[in-house]
Amino acid sequence: MSPSRIGRKHIHIRGIVQGVGFRPFVYNLAQKLQLSGYVLNSAAGVVIEIEGEDARLDRFVEQVHADAPPLALIEDVAVIGLAPAGYDGFVIRESVDEPGKLAPVSPDVSTCDDCMRDFRNAGNRRYGYPFTNCTNCGPRYTITRKVPYDRPLTTMACFPMCARCLAEYEDPTDRRFHAQPNACPECGPSLSLAPSDNLGDTPEFGSRLPAIRETRRLLRAGRILAIKGLGGFHLACDPANDEAVRLLRERKKRSDKPFALMVPDIMAAERICVVSDASRAALLSARRPIVILPRRPDAPITAELAPRNNTIGVMLPYTPLHYLLFSDSLDHPPEFQSLVMTSGNISEEPIVTGNREAAQRLSRIADAFLFHNRDIHTRVDDSVVRVFEERERVLRRSRGYAPFPIALNFPVGEILACGAELKNAFCLTKDHHAFLSQHIGDLENYETLRFYQETLDRMKELFRISPATVAYDLHPMYLSTKLALEMNGVEKIGVQHHHAHIASCMAENGIRDKVIGVAFDGTGFGTDGKIWGGEFLVADFSGFERRAHLRYMALAGGDTAVREPWRLGLSYLLDAFGSRATSLEIPLFREVPAKKVATVRSMIERGFNTVQTSACGRLFDAVASIAGVRHEVNFEAQAAIELEMSAHAGVDAEYLFDVSAGDPWQIDLRPAIEAIVKDVLAQRPVGHISAAFHNTVASIVIEVSERIRATESINRVCLSGGTFQNLYLLERSVMGLRRKGFEVSLHAKIPPNDGGIALGQAVIANAALSRYPA
Ligand SMILES: [Zn+2]
Ligand SMILES: [Zn+2]
Fold first, then answer.
1. pTM above 0.85, yes or no
2. Most exposed residue of 36, 394, 437, 678, measured as fewest CB within 10 angstroms of its CB?
3. Spacing, Cα 175 to ligand 1 middle (Å)
């Protein structure tokens, strides 16, 4: 063996390496390998200088990558060899800031097993402490004010650590070494419970178990509690109490929209829902999303939670405080098998975060407030996912996911993509990253718009992005579009809605070649000024051709037509049956007042206050109404969801449709509408009609894709748009396409609905920039 030589290496690690226990890990690794030098957080990642025997240095570089902490995501390790500097020992140095450099911030992480042990152990000083955390878990994005991620730059700055916490924080061998939110009952945040009619100016913080026990007592008594959590307030009540659920619905103005449940453990989830292996993994993941699961027919919960819906959204506790809502400790069985935990907001406004804000905005909904005094700097809702083909599919991307970047397989400029109107999320890009914001919500009120602007300002600062280019939706009335058009000193690029849907699916799947894009949703502004949404595109990032679409139908009365699906039913009936339509003896004409029908009929016939639409969501509305499922809705896509829920399994029947020649092809559903009416008149069960209709739409997806393949030689199909949240349709379409030899790409990391559209806008704008460089 040759005598070992001494060397020095400068290592720069980029990725999610801050707030995930990376520096302690590096410190311990250096100690183990008897190397000297230092590690520090910089705004651009983690910088290490390491000195010692060459062989040990090599092992260090190997292990720093291979054994990184579970929450770290290493993107790049740059190593430079240097002459030895004579370091004495290994230290963690002060953080340095490098303006302009990118340092991803970790999303919030649910309580880890080690912290749960501390929290459950009666002999531990953190026994029952609701804010227990360590370098492997706890709040991150929600408390970060600025980068680099260090306690003074978080909302923990106002809690000086006690001697014992500080000792942990400074001990490189401790799990809480440099855990920025580190806290204990002596020095950290605390709770306070206050009734809504006596909130006082400054609630008194401090009480712990008494506040929690009183909270549980109130919940058991049927009260509604506003509970401050990680990214905002929840509204909670006992789902076994019909009256409490009804009251919450009424006060929250939430009509029929489903409520999510929190359950104490996985067994409780299994008593309510059918939990597959992949769903279990999603429920138990450190991100702790709400998972949409099939509800058991014998589930011990009231149907009021999700009316006419056979699925339910369930999540597990993700902070110690949540565990306390169920019981003091493991020795006590949970007092609730589940709790309603819905976003603390009124109707469609953003989730409430501040104590004073909560007192103002939620006191008419909640009977009492469980506050804490750790400020939530960034508002983040619960994320919502579902499993399809044993893979987690994100439907609402927020807590635990944001602001984790989507990796792109090509470089991008600094771009802001403003997103759409409903379920808005925007996107900032830089290097190979797309930073999709957390779920912002429907940009329809002032509060949501403020949330949008505030989050945009913060993300630009956190990720050091100064967009010179802004991408926006073509819809002139979207607030996100208006915002984009008002910006000065930036290049503005309008992107067609469905092109953006398909590009987002391509980008998250790493596809850059032309695809057949099927974009089905409820609405999107077309390049001809009409409302699209049943589109077959041949597309890549640089452009698209519209090859086929559902025939245009009259949408009479603008937004009212979206709230009243029968108006679309009438459009489709008039289109198929002409003037005979209104004399058909179907539920629509029995259940909707004749006068209203006559008014809308004349609007359609005269083209008054009417726009043309090819939206697939509106086709579902029409069929839901014609089949008698529902004629009016009180939340987005309600009719389509209930139509899907009613579909019988095992039906192979389908209805006919035509594809007419021309450019683009028109998909003509008149034969299907005639056959559906015939089935309704023959009193065939709604479940059969619904299934046959779903089968028809799947056949449209497959047959039209085949026709496009015949002329274009493109074998990949991307499915995107909110309509593909319909599992029956998705499953049937995917299976049929694969049987015909297509390669099918779907969404997983970002939502198929408008929550994912900003990513598509960004990559399309980026392609436009590289074609026409400034
Ligand atoms: Zn922990
Ligand atoms: Zn302490």
1. yes
2. 678
3. 8
